[in-house]
Amino acid sequence: MSNRQREIKSFFFSQYFSDGLRISAGILIPALGMMQLGHFDLGLTLSLGALCICTIDSPGPATHKRNSMAIGSICVLLVAIITGYARMNVYALGLEITVFSFLFSMFVVYGNRAAAVGTASLLIMIFMLGKDEPGNEIIPYSLTIFAGGVWYMLFSLVFFGIRPYRAAQQTLAENVTDIARFLRIKADFYRPNVDLDENYRKLVLQQIQVSNHQDAVRELLFKSRLVVKESTWASRILVLTFIDLVDMFEQIMATHYDYSEIRKRFVGTGIITDIADFLDLLAEDLDNIGYAVLANARPEKLSNIEPGLEKLKTKIDAIGNDQTVASNIVLKKILINLRELGKSINNLYKYYHSKASDGLLDTDSPEVEYSKFVSHQDYAPHIFWDNFTLKSATFKHALRVALVCLIGFITAKNFALGGHSYWVLLTIIVILKPGFSLSKQRNYQRLIGTIGGGLIGIFILTFIPNKDVQFVFLIVFMLGTYSFLRLNYVVSVIFMTPYVLILFKFLGVGLLNVAQERIIDTIIGSTIAFVASYVIFPTWEFEQVQQNMKAVLTANINYLQKIAESVAGRLVSVTEYKLARKDVFVNSANLSATFERMTSEPKSKQYHIKDIHKFVVLNHILSSYTANMASALVRNMPQQPHADTQKLVKRSIAVLKDTVAKIDDVIVSTDGPQIEPPKTEPVKPPFTEAQPTPDEMLMKEQLGFINKITVDIAKITETILR
């Protein structure tokens, strides 16, 4: 199968298409069903309720989906009733828009799912602006919308309940593909013609993708297991695959070398290109496994890894015997890492072709371990009130949304065309994000998508008059809209605009008038949102990058602390190591994401951008070497304590703690409580020490390099803080 065919099939097997199919069906069924019964208007109202609630239907455990959609349905009902009566007075309506825009934008403090509830509430407020219902019809109309929301909630939960682990399987498959891409980027470090700095940037960007999907799998898989309190064969295979994937990612992260030096020493031998090709071969195997997991099939091996390893070994041995070439020790280390990586990939294949996985999980109390690896959202009321300060980015965002929606409402009342002026507010709501860079990106995508989609819609309705064909296009565009909503927003909007135009044509509204009105209203809303994101309580990434730096350094301190305890003779559990590793990877991804958003902001706001990039790269190198050491310590527990190794690791921790203290001194505002470096009691070593083994000498060398990296991080941090 060619890569192009695999990509196309992967899309149709993916959670994105599955979401698009579910959402489209959930919205269409009420309208089509009621149309058959002669109550099309009632069906449209039910579909409107489903349309609002579908925004909350993001991937996650069934209980979270149920609770959020139930709360969202109640919020939608209340907002629909209030808006229905408020629209009878323009001043009351303006006040309601301002207050609700602020209130529901503040829901962001409770996480993405709560933010989606706020978005659903704002959507129904905007849609109700275009409904001229008499006073005695407002409550029945709002209850019908509520019924549509409840219908969608039940439909989605049934859809999810049929195959409860399918969403986790799809997200896991994406994670496999992400790691394959990460491995290919690693392979490029061995290609002499690839720029190292640019490749590091690609690497940290891909790390964001890997981290996000790993978090999504944890949410879907571990929380679902905690809810059902059982371990089926399907879930066992998914858990084993995911655990091995996380360990494999650590392996890949841990294999860091001085690539510039390797290129200089071995470029003439051709070995580094062979290593890159072999890594690409392993990545192809991972892609094959990812596709099989996505397609719910058993993956078949693409190639035998052993012959490739033997060829590399023969060539590396030949280089070692060549007196004109430098020592091949580093190449032997790379070969060992490649063997370990090959074993991990072979293990993944075995899970799907044998019963070896049976009994590997303790199903008596899985929540004891797994519950530690998933986050738990705190919904305490004080979190909401604690953010009522201009030091909070969320509070500034909510104020900005409220003011801009009021401006948009006034503008739409005075300048917008036709009877769909609420499109101005709709554009503002979907474009405005907490950060400038995200708002800028969404603005561009919305404009391009609306104009491009508008032209497609006009072409179809002008040159294809057959209503049956137009209805088929309506279904296709609807599927495309919701399938690409999380995958590629600009493509989603390109599908959305002709979908809306064809829908309005079926409802008897003029084609060119609607197309012109939608494009102009989108331009008005986009312009207002763009200007507002720059001048009204703007939030720039440099304001929070120091918090991200502090968080990642604190996570590294905790990771190094586990190593310190281990080399001091204390038995550190694998779970403790993995939790520390998870914190480092998650916080590193957050820092990388902040840096990437910073690069799309105005040049005047990109303070110390080059130094922050160096910090990101140094942090990646530090976490790589720390992961390498942790992996070795886990394999060789318990350790005999040695004073030299303890001094080195304590010195590194002290440097990082001092750096965190300096960041604390300059942080003026935070969005939450201060992150304190972990405080642990030092472990006293025994009075006698054994002589160090060769492995322990190597550990001492690695700790020395880690110490050098921490000093470099401290220096670059001082430059950033100036």
UniProtKB/TrEMBL annotation:
Bilayer topology annotation: Multi-pass membrane protein
Residue ranges of every copy of the Integral membrane protein YccS N-terminal domain listed in the record: 70-340
Subcellular location: Cell membrane
InterPro entries: Memb_transporter_dom, YccS_N
UniProt key word Transmembrane: yes
Transmembrane segments: 21-40, 68-86, 98-126, 138-162, 398-416, 446-464, 484-507, 519-540
Record carries keyword Thylakoid: no
Domain Integral membrane bound transporter per the UniProt entry, residue ranges: 419-531
Alphabetical keyword list: Cell membrane, Membrane, Transmembrane, Transmembrane helix
Signal peptide: none
GO cellular component: plasma membrane
Family to which the UniProt record says this protein belongs: Belongs to the YccS/YhfK family.
Name of the protein in question: Uncharacterized protein
Lineage: Bacteria, Pseudomonadati, Bacteroidota, Sphingobacteriia, Sphingobacteriales
